[in-house]
Amino acid sequence: MSPVSRGRKKKPAGGRKKSSAAAAENSAHRRILAEFAALEPTADLLEVEVLGSEAAVWRAGPGEKSVERQLLDLIAHARRHPGPGAANLLATLRVFAVDGQAQSEADAALRELMAAGVEPPPWTDVVGRAQAGACWLCRDRFDEEHLLLCVFERAGEPDHGLLVGIGLGGEIDELELVENPADVLAELRANLVEEDTLERVSGSVARRQLAHAIVRTHTWLPEHAILEGLLISRQRLLGDPPPDIEDPEVDVEAAARRFFAANPDIEDDEEHRELVEWLVEFSRQVEPRWAMHIGPELLVLLADELPEEASPELLEAWIRWRAAERELSEDALDELLEIATGFFEGSDPYLDGVDEDEDVEEVLDRRQFALPEASTMIGDEEVDLDPNDLDDRVLLVLGEHPELHEAVANEELDPGSAELLGTKAMVVHQLWDNDPPEVWAAARALRDQGVDRQHVLERLRTVLLENASPESDGGMELDIENYRRALTRLS
Question: Where is the composition biased (Basic residues) (predicted)?
């Protein structure tokens, strides 16, 4: 129908027209079948499995239908349109569908197609199969963050692996298919920090970790969800099914009695007891895997929930008590206490590290010019950052260039854009630290002339580049004396 046709249109003879949502879903079904029809008989098996895992959580878009219902509708569409695309799709969904009913429906539909003379793909009997190899578990010193690398092998193919991050609460917060597990293992070893551990674990231990993490993960990020079916299928190769989750029981009143017995300086009155019992319950809800967990990530969440009545003394006593019972190191304890100190200081990150004899107003002016905000948008997410942290400063600079976010995420940043971000970050670091002081003097002089912040930073960046030379490792060497003289001329 022409988009410019006018007048009353005749009702179609077939009855009511399909809704736009149904039409869109039908179009998506056809597209998916076309993708699977394009698979060659000799297609890479791992690529086939990833495509099937992605189809298993396919969703047409927001609406009332659940993922499970939409998947059953996709299987029904394949039933009605027999052919190579339908056979390829069903052969993967019967393995990677995360819902048992969908797996059964896909298997039954594939058998119907085969009975009707449709040839199944040559990899039908091997898709989803592999030999479990070594599994490695990396833990931080608080037992709060786990990284699990499981390697899988197939005859005639390179090894591949799944790298799974399990964070606070036992939920999956990282999931990646790796085609070079040996390199990833070497990187894990190289990046271990003090008190981190990396150990080889049995398949049954790895399966228990993964199976429980899958159950605990309520919301999957889109980039993780497309591998959920593959993860569920692969973890079954690691050993027998693990027992059901049994989180440790915590006797709240008994825990409070232990706390006060260990801290006689804290008065055991009604208010303090309620606060201690609240802390016990909070830690149990946030991290059910361990009895009364303590760690940095838990404290970050605690900062927004801690009752106003809680005193610094009570919180410090709680942290020390938990650290002692868990036998954490002095360094680990210091890290926790440093985090907790900020709960009560009402500290301004822009004044962190400022000496008593420094001009507070001048420091604020300089640092707020360098970084006007301590939060930024990265993609679609607003992120709170610490401008005292070098890496966070770089992210705040990146936040000012949304046009480069996608290129950075895809590791496709061109040299010119990389130079822009790198040199702008260098100027911001110099302003923040007031080193050299000529940077701020020049910036202030330009600002007083009516030049806006972005153009000031660009002028400073240009001066920096004019006084720097490239190094063999990709960095740059700054002629600091010439740089300072050039900055002085600006001011």
Answer: 1-19
Within 326-452, residue ranges assigned H as helices are: 330-345, 360-370, 390-399, 405-409, 415-433, 437-448
CB 487: neighbour CB atoms within 10 A?
24
**pLDDT bucket at 63, cuts 50 / 70 / 90:** low
What residues contact 457, with CB distance under 8 A and at least 6 apart? 424, 427, 428, 443
- Check if the beta carbon of residue 460 is closer than 8 Å to that of residue 442: yes
Contact 209, 235 (CB under 8 A): no
Q: With b meaning 16 or more CB within 10 Å and e meaning fewer, what string describes 7-38?
A: eeeeeeeeeeeeeeeeeebeebbeebbeebee
Which of 228, 211, 231 lies closest to 219 in space, CA to CA? 228
Per-residue model confidence (pLDDT) at position 17: 46
pLDDT at residue 62 greater than cutoff 70: no
Task: For 105-123, write each residue's pLDDT tens digit.
Answer: 999 999 999 999 999 999 9
- Average model confidence (pLDDT) across the chain: 89
Q: Which two tokens stand for residue 165?
A: 């991050």
Burial class of residue 469 (count of CB atoms within 10 Å of its CB; 0-12, 13-18, 19+): exposed
How does DSSP assign 67-103, residue by residue? HHHHHHHHHHHHHHS-SHHHHHHHHHHHHH-SSHHHH
Q: Which residue has the tokens 């303090």?
A: 272
Residue 70 has a pLDDT of 87
7 — phi, psi (to 5°)? Answer: 95, 170
What is the residue-wise DSSP string for 135-189? EEEEE-TTS--EEEEEEEE-TTS--EEEEEEE-GGG-EEEEEEES-HHHHHHHHH
Q: Are 226 and 158 in contact (CB under 8 A)?
A: no
Q: Could you tell me how far CA 366 lies from the centroid of its own chain?
A: 33
CA-to-CA dists, residue 34 to 43, 274, 298, angstroms = 15, 62, 47
Residue-level pLDDT at 6: 29
pTM as predicted:
0.67
CB contact at 8 A, 385 and 375: yes
Termini Cα distance of the chain: 68
The answer to whether the bond into 436 is cis (omega within 30° of 0) is: yes
